[in-house]
Amino acid sequence: MKAKALLRTRFIARSAATGLALLIAAGSAAADTTVKWLHLELDPNYVAIWRRIADKYQAEHPGVKIEMQFLENEAFKAKLPTLLQSSDAPDFFYSWGGGVLKQQLATGTLMDLTEAMNAKDGAWVKSYNPAAVKGLSYDGKIGAVPFKMGTVSFFYNKALFAKAGVDAAGIKSWDDYLVAVKKIKGAGIVPIAGGGGEKWPIHFYWSYLVMRNGGQKVFDTAKTGEGEGFNDPAIIKAGDQLAELGKLEPFQPGYLGATWPQTLGVFGDGKAAMILAFENTAANQRTNAGDGKGLDPENIGRFAFPAVTGGAGAATDTLGGLNGWAVTKKAPAETLDFLAYLTNAENEREMAKAGMLIPVAVGAEDGVTNPLLHQSAEQLAHSTWHQNFFDQDLGPSVGRVVNDVSVAIVSGQMSPADGAQQIQEAFEQDQL
């Protein structure tokens, strides 16, 4: 960074509810600094909240400009590797954590945040849920500033469930779920909004079934290259169950080409009874609905992914995100200061009240007032094993195969055993 004066770093107490954040102040007048922020948020209401926070920060820090840049989900994933190697690299960007973040950190693309976040008796790092910091750390290095946690679960259209005579409270097992799918379809209603075009939305089904059948031990054993790996019988059984769902043809016509925004629109337009999706689905279905309004919040229900009879996994095991903001190697020092500000308890509470996230800032929990988001927060609070998305945790190479295989199995294009073998081969290749 070019500056007319030397920057000095200091931690001070900030008077927002939890009070602690990192501030980096200029010793004297510094040249204007632009902090480039790359995100993929679709909801304009949420982006507006970020913009207000950024504008307030700018007002309090003359000479610093926060520039927000947007890329759609798939474009973000496709362009980010090239962007990170270019002169136009963002200073910080959204990260799903997992193997992708670990790889970016290992290759030196990102700033190791460990020293900065632990300075001054760890005031900054202690302002977050310890599990969030741990989940974004690799080989003793903090790879991203924690932002939010989330879990994937089923959201359903109460009116369509009532029309089909299905009681969501009665769906406790995978067998119960299949019965409900058949009953909904029998009522002339599309049971599930499915996003096969981008593939990763379908991997939620395969991942949860692996978790429910094998439990944490089977998955951890597979990803460390031990035992039968991804050819474990519990993992193949998960594929069998996914194939069984696929045979019911539960998704909307054309689901294999549907993008995620389109899939949310199908649910928001009332053209499918349910969707397996993120904790902020109630807001995102509204944004992507044809009329921009979507389903009335009172018409949306939620239930956890059901248990598998005889499976080693618990119904209280959760799959979902652990998201943070990764900082690039050459980012100006002001980037860290802004991130401490963006994710402090006051601002995380504001985002939580808007239904935007489940906060990771200590003291911001009372901001979760949206009923559906509160249910997700409660589920996470009692989670017996929280697993990051498989395609993120296993890294880009293996994760891509997981997504491909999930779609191939559910659409009947691949056998569960062949799918498991392909994932195992991709994993072995990735270890070379």
Produce a short descriptive summary.
The protein is of the alpha+beta class.
Structure write-up:
Residues 1-31 form the signal peptide. The chain is an alpha+beta fold and 432 residues long. The chain folds into 2 domains: 7-143 and 322-381, D-Maltodextrin-Binding Protein, domain 2 (3-Layer(aba) Sandwich), CATH 3.40.190; 153-319 and 389-431, Periplasmic binding protein-like II (D-Maltodextrin-Binding Protein, domain 2, 3-Layer(aba) Sandwich), CATH 3.40.190. 45% of the residues lie in helices and 16% in strands. It is built from 17 helices and 15 strands. The protein has helices at residues 44-60, 73-84, 98-106, 114-122, 130-135, 158-164, 174-186, 200-223, 233-247, 260-268, 281-288, 334-342, 345-353, 371-381, 390-393, 396-410, 416-431, and strands at residues 7-13, 20-26, 33-39, 64-70, 92-95, 137-138, 141-142, 145-149, 153-157, 274-277, 300-303, 317-319, 322-327, 358-359, 385-387. A 6-stranded mixed sheet has the order 4-3-5-13-8-14. A 3-stranded antiparallel sheet has the order 10-9-11. Helix 8 (200-223) packs across helix 16, helix 9 (233-247) packs across helix 17 (416-431) and helix 10 crosses helix 11 (281-288). The longest helix is centred in the middle third of the chain and has 24 residues, at 200-223. It is globular. The two termini are 38 Å apart. Mean pLDDT is 91; it is low at 1-30.
